[in-house]
Amino acid sequence: MTDNNVRIVSLIPGGTEILAALGLVNAIVGRSHECDYPPEIHNRPICTQARLNSNASSSQINDEVNKLLQSALSIYEIKTDVLEQLQPTHILTQDQCDVCAVSLHEVEKAVATLVDSKPQIISLQPNILQDVWTDIERVGNIFGVDSVKVLENLEARVKICHHKIQGLSLHELPTVVCIEWIDPLMVAANWIPELVNLAGGQSLFCATGQPSPVLPWETLLTTNPDVIVFMPCGFDLNRTREEAQLLTQRPEWGKLHATETGRVYITDGNSYFNRPGPRLVDSLEILAEILHPEIFQYGYKGTGWETL
Question: What pTM did the predictor assign?
Answer without folding.
Answer: 0.90
